[in-house]
Design a protein that fits this description.
The protein is of the alpha/beta class and 286 residues long. It is built from 10 helices and 16 strands.
Length: 286
């Protein structure tokens, strides 16, 4: 088994929204804002080569939305999902499974693209199964007013219509049964209903894809919770339990949204769990 980071494209989000009630004077120390109060955000995914399976965890924003849509997110840099896969020697048709931590557009938008004549949409990965869980699918396809702008029908319905959508059951996952992969899932409800946080045993270490439970290094302190979270008090509890386990079990945290840090470890301090060391992925898992 081999695992690679996959850069799908960088963008920017409002710093205040990303840090909720935390004052800018504190969060800008780790996530400096530009003149528009926007901070750098990545859409960094993982690619797992596991025997005859090629598993992608999340897929970034994609490129099918309008210029107006993307104007809100200030895309920057030259990374794309297709280019990153090509650099690793793969084509979208090679992907066998896409594991979606949740269905907000910046996590699953790359799954669906325009068809050849731009009259409709089609799966980017025509040979893949798309994995979510039924509770989150129902939440996403019948969205509340707060999250409606994050759950885009054009990202969701084509997966179902193609027949490629699959559900992971918490107690009996066919996704896990089909693999020798040391793969566990933490279900959390603070950011959105039943977000899935993968824990992967790799090279005698535990690699955790933190998704939107801990988006960036700057979000490690317990109260640093996004304004986007639907249930911030749930996040507070879930994050507190996770941080303790991360220190106790020497987890390596892989950041999907930190544009400047791929990986870190944590340590206990008199202020709670805090950053220990930052790493490039290849420094730890070469």
């Amino acid at each position: 088994m081999t695992i690679y980071p996959v850069e799908t494209g960088n963008f920017k989000l409002d710093g205040g929204a990303m840090f909720g009630v935390v004052p800018k004077s504190l969060w800008q120390r780790t996530n400096p804002a530009d003149e528009h109060n926007m901070i750098d955000i990545a859409a960094r995914c993982l690619l797992i080569e596991d025997g005859n399976r090629l598993i992608l965890i999340d897929s970034g924003l994609g490129n099918k939305q309008s210029e107006k849509f993307f104007s809100y997110y200030y895309r920057w840099g030259d990374h794309t999902l297709e280019r990153s896969l090509k650099n690793l020697g793969h084509h979208p048709d090679d992907i066998t499974d896409v594991f979606m931590t949740h269905l907000h557009f910046d996590h699953c938008g790359g799954n669906i693209r325009w068809n050849a004549d731009r009259t409709g949409y089609e799966p980017t990965f025509k040979n893949a199964s798309f994995w979510t869980n039924e509770a989150h699918w129902n939440w996403a396809t019948q969205p509340n007013a707060r999250e409606k702008a994050s759950f885009l029908k054009e990202n969701l319905i084509p997966m179902q219509e193609s027949g490629q959508l699959r559900f992971i059951d918490r107690k009996n996952s066919s996704f896990l049964e089909r693999s020798e992969l040391g793969f566990g899932i933490l279900f959390v409800d603070g950011h959105t209903e039943k977000q899935m946080i993968p824990h992967i045993r790799y090279k005698d270490k535990t690699l955790v894809f933190t998704a939107d439970l801990i988006p960036t290094v700057g979000h490690i302190p317990l109260p640093y919770i996004m304004g986007y979270d639907t249930r911030p008090l749930f996040t507070l509890e879930e994050k507190g339990v996770f941080l303790k386990k991360a220190v106790e079990n020497d987890y390596y945290l892989f950041f999907e949204h930190d544009a400047h840090c791929e990986l870190c470890t944590l340590q206990n301090t008199d202020r709670g769990e805090r950053l220990e060391n930052k790493y490039r992925f290849d420094e730890v898992f070469n």
